[in-house]
């Protein structure tokens, strides 16, 4: 993208004018943009020249603080300008959202916060170009959409540029491997000991568990708490886009996807990872988030006799199952929904739905509670059935209401499987569901 330096008139922002001048000087003079001494010398010269011109003629406004301008320009070139705190981790956040010159972020409480340091749309484009250059990618008007991993796989960058968007749109989701335990989730009233014990028991034997919920509802947090309750000897293969899963304490392999290189080759997607994991004798395959064709490979994982654990975006447990079928049929024209529903009903035993309380409902301006709203069991479909049967096991009426056992039994085959591993511990599945015994 060619940057044109605007004429220095009183209506032109001095910072944007000087920033463009500095970028043009970098190219024209071949200055190393990573050399702090050379960059500082160049921007000091530009600022001094600008200030002299502003004080000797009426065409420019003098700078109130030339030294602050030097620092601001140097940070734009050497680092990432006003977005630097989000790149280097100085500001803790879940997601950064940029629309044109408007910058906001979701903080760790789920609250949307405005970031008021000024930035221009051109500078946003410059920051995006620098970030993409670190992974050998680019975005411009001919290729206006991209989503890729940055920061050594610790974050996901999404960009949509004009003419597709009215202004440049950027999101950065930075991932931190969270190590929450069921004890902490119980303390936060996100789950009860009985419900947590049922999920912990599911890892004692090959079981298929899906976690559903909208973005930011605590799906990955629950997944990590579940994994941290697992036996350390469990052979786990974790397949992810970005490293969010807490598997360091397990006998685990962590695999990550890889985008294609500048030549369009070398991509490794989740479907390939899940397919490969089947040949590595796992006890449990964990997929951080199902979004595409990898859902089809999960059918093979379940039929291979290993456990399966994953998340998917959905507004409810049943909707999550429907979303899983919709993604699985993306694998090819011969993959039909009826077949996928039948297979998933036989390999998915439990679906856990998480939800985030709307900020408006809290009355505090802060993000709401993130709680498990229901845990349902999925009996295998019978020959005459056309859709999933969903049996509520635990249910919460509303945010803040208790998560209670419904009194419904588990499907017979799942109850038998769990009973087999609980019996040596001296209690039954019903004692877990009733809360009389606990595994967490």
Overall tally of structural domains: 3
- Beta content comes to 15-25%
Q: Could you give the order of strands across the largest sheet?
A: 9-8-10-11-7-12-13-14-15
Q: What's the β-strand tally?
A: 15
Question: What's the story with the biggest beta sheet?
Answer: 9 strands, mixed
Name of the CATH first level of the largest domain: Alpha Beta
CATH architectural type of the largest domain: 3-Layer(aba) Sandwich
Under CATH, the topology of the largest domain can be stated as: Rossmann fold
The dominant shape is elongated
Helix content: 25-40%
Q: What is the H level of CATH, i.e. the homologous superfamily of the largest domain?
A: P-loop containing nucleotide triphosphate hydrolases
Low-confidence stretches: 1-12
What structural class should be given to the helix and strand makeup? alpha/beta
Radius of gyration from the alpha-carbon trace, in angstroms: 26 Å
Q: Could you state the order of secondary-structure elements as H and E?
A: HHHHEEEHEEEHHEHEEHEHEHHEHEEEHH
Describe the structure concisely for a colleague:
35% of the residues lie in helices and 19% in strands.
Walk me through what this model shows.
35% of the residues lie in helices and 19% in strands. By secondary structure, the protein is α/β, with parallel strands linked by helices. The protein has 3 domains: 1-78; 83-174, Beta-Lactamase, CATH 3.30.450.90; 182-433, Rossmann fold, CATH 3.40.50.300. A 9-stranded mixed sheet has the order 9-8-10-11-7-12-13-14-15, with helices on both faces. β2 (102-106) and β3 form a beta hairpin. α1 (14-29) crosses α3 (66-78). The protein starts with 13 loop residues before the first helix and ends in a 7-residue tail after the last helix.
